[in-house]
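User: Hello, beginner here. Can you help me understand these amino acid letters and fold codes? It all follows right here:
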Amino acid sequence: MPFDAPTVRAVVALSLTQLIGWGATFWLPAVTGPAMVGELRMTLPMIMAGPTVMLVVMAMVSWPLSAIFERHGARPIMIFGSPLGAAGLLVMGLANGPATYLLSWIILGLAGASMLTTPAQIAVTEIAGEKARQALGVLVLAGGLTSTIVWPLTGLLQGQWGWRTTTLVYAAIMLLVCMPLHWTALARRPKEKSAVKTAAEPASIDLPRFALLALSFAANGFFTWGFALTIIILFEAAGLDHASALTAAAFIGIAQWAGRMVDFVGGRRWLGFVTGLAASALFPLSFIVLLLTSDFVGAMLFATLYGVASGVTAVTRATLPLQIFPNGAYARASAQLAVPLNLSYAAAPPVFAAIMTSAGPHAALWLAFAMSIFAFCALFSLLLLHRRMNRRSQQDRILIAD
């Protein structure tokens, strides 16, 4: 079933603003970081700590924002987040040392909580209705292109104008492109609907199911974000030369795209639990492959399994809450889930780097294997609990009808 025109406009607009938003913030230092070191009198690890600060701030702000999303919808918050992101990039572009550089990432963390990923997913569900899962699949599919598109563009701009001007250009794009798109393409919540929702009792979020979902997603996010910056080292530790390690690492991105496409194509026929559990089972299998092999074929097999699992899981994070929680609670549940997710994302890179430095790459790989087993068990327990609660709810409705 095709999407209606408002849904198409919203998904296209949000795909663009998410690409700009993540590319101009979290992924920016991957290209500009080395050039920032000398001018800001900072070490490269300090520069790379900026995105971690951003994620921690996003985690701290997400829970308080959950009630605002539920009461007022995503549109006004995302409209506010765009100029806030532009302000953070402006401060970064004009930074003259560690203090102003850190301040820029704090502002970007506030902006990220207001306009990146979770708000975008909430906005899609508000406008797509019954087709929310398919629409979210398209949004996540487009998000997989962020680094592929933005890194070369950032490198080109920096080569021409330097990192400061590049950062200021992204600030202008955030203000002049993202804010108008959020203003025009997202759903306006009718006043009478808002009033009714405010007066009504909020839909409840079942705590055991929320906890299991958060544990599974946070565990998966911990090792996937931890490997994002260390996967090449792992391949080299397995016995590959640098060129082969780079090739296998690059193939992960292709496999992730394929995984997102698999869920998008089959999402209408498969429940979110089915794809989520399948992807969660592929993670430990991929780690076993890398632990048992030391050649290029083994690395490519790992890259395929790991990449497909990562791609499917990215879609499942957005869509599974639709299946578990009441429609009226999706915005609040998604915003609250962002707290453990962003904290795990923030902690992962330094923790994995520390483990690989002190105990070696294989220790990090065994940790990831253990975390992947834990994530699968949490998700499987969630499925059993969800089915039991659904059966109980159906029995209660039958008793009431009798």
User: Anything to note?
Assistant: Confidence is low (pLDDT under 50) at residues 190-200. The chain has 17 helices and no strands. Residues 88 and 104 are 5 Å apart (CA to CA). The longest helix spans residues 361-401.
